[in-house]
Amino acid sequence: MPSTEVVIAKRFNNLLRPLQVHIHRSTVLAGELAQIHHVDVEACELAAGTHDLFRSEPDFAQISTAEKYGIPIGDIEMKTPMLLHGANAAAWLENEAGLTDNRVLEAVRWHTFGWPEIDDIGKILYLADKLEPGKVTADPSLAVIRNMADIHPDKALLALLQKRVEAQLSKALEVHPLTLALIENLKSN
């Protein structure tokens, strides 16, 4: 059986180039933030390097992959199946690639929404995914939050989550309950 790294690399190499670039930039930023904040660099880089392995799958494939792995599909995910890509990637990493680091699996599983019990690896992945250089260039208003992430990752995470919720509400989109629970947890700390 091929190693975990080989299985992951094969899937990564089949992704479209723009997604590969995003994953690479997220991985670099995750490593930088992990070093700054004394979080496991290898785990953060692995989470960032695998978080979007299922991002470009079409809706029918998101649903069928979730069903294959027994992943619950809520109303929000049924309306927008792409939102299953983190859970699908985590299930694939565990079942097909043989990844056993639960910290990485949880970070990948919930990187789209966050989750109330988010740990440091999850925080780094969330920030790196949403604040990588390409996304800051596309939305310069993220630069302030990106700078904040170097000094106060929890404050940066809260600011980023609130900004994303505002954007979703302005488009009349439903906000995932996990995101709202994470915001409440961050506010109470």
How does this structure look, described?
The chain is mainly α and 189 residues long. The protein has a single domain, classed as Hypothetical protein af1432, CATH 1.10.3210. 70% of the residues lie in helices and 0% in strands. The chain starts with a helix and ends with a helix. The model has no long low-confidence stretch (mean pLDDT 96).
Distance between the termini: 45 Å
Just give the CATH class: Mainly Alpha
CATH architecture: Orthogonal Bundle
Mean pLDDT: 96
Helix content, binned percent: over 70%
Q: Please provide the count of β strands.
A: 0
Shape: globular
Question: What's the CATH topology name?
Answer: Hypothetical protein af1432
Counted up, domains total 1
Give the H and E element order: HHHHHHHHHHHH
Specify the number of helices. 12
The portion of residues forming beta strands comes to: under 5%
Class of secondary structure makeup: mainly alpha
Specify the biggest β-sheet: none
List keywords for this structure.
189 residues; mainly alpha; Hypothetical protein af1432; 70% helix; 0% strand
Reconstruct the topology from this structure.
Blueprint: H1 4-13, H2 17-36, H3 41-50, H4 59-69, H5 75-79, H6 85-95, H7 102-110, H8 120-131, H9 133-138, H10 143-151, H11 153-170, H12 177-188
Helix pairs in contact: 2-3, 2-8, 3-7, 3-8, 4-6, 6-7, 7-8, 8-11, 10-11, 11-12
